[in-house]
Amino acid sequence: METLKISVLGTGDMGGAIATALKKRTNHTIHVRGSNDASISSKKLVGELGVTAATPQDLSTSDIVFIVVPATELSGAAATLGGYTGIVVAVSVSGTVGRDGRPSSAETLAASLPGAKVVSAFTSIWSDVIRTPGTDGQVSAFVASDHEDAKAAVSGLAKELGFHAINGGSLANAVYAEAMGMFAVRLAIDSGYGRTISFSAFNVR
Ligand SMILES: NC(=O)c1ccc[n+]([C@@H]2O[C@H](COP(=O)([O-])OP(=O)(O)OC[C@H]3O[C@@H](n4cnc5c(N)ncnc54)[C@H](OP(=O)(O)O)[C@@H]3O)[C@@H](O)[C@H]2O)c1
Q: Rounded to the nearest whole angstrom, what is the distance from the C-alpha of residue 73 to the centroid of ligand 1?
């Protein structure tokens, strides 16, 4: 397996889980960046995992950049990436996705980063499950993009992390995958299933 250079932009609960899973379960080179150079959450990950704080050059030369910031911070994250032309994994979910008539976070990023290959993935998986995929059956990672090569690369990464990669079709479908993320939040909190409630897609035969 080729060693990829992967950066994680956004080092909170979900970004931290993704960086930890990538570092512990793959051989790729991992860089992290929080909201600014002095980000405490980023420094914590660097100290705990032995990953590297991403410089602007690290970001621009990454094969894959995960964007794991609050949906309200997407424009700031996109500005940090500037003219990036690699693969972007959009993980952000807006609390009003599917209700506000606005594009998905993934489509918003694609509009802001026209040179990048944006892939929607991991939006419906809790950070707890990213850290520990569990043994009760394979959790699905829904992967949607308009770029088949980028979708294949991110699907491969999802498999490496222990998830069942499901072809989610084009980036226009990201809104549904992001809505599943909000549904997972409601199932965890309102229905009381907790932060390990997960989706598994399969064909009935
Ligand atoms: N938590 C989950 O289980 C989960 C699952 C699926 C999807 N998501 C989605 O993932 C996104 C992040 O969620 P979270 O729970 O990780 O939130 P969080 O714990 O609040 O972390 C947000 C992170 O974003 C960083 N950030 C803010 N503005 C930034 C910018 N302009 N550039 C770079 N980094 C920036 C913050 O950096 P500092 O620490 O430096 O302030 C912080 O590390 C949300 O859209 C959420 O819907 C979360």
A: 9
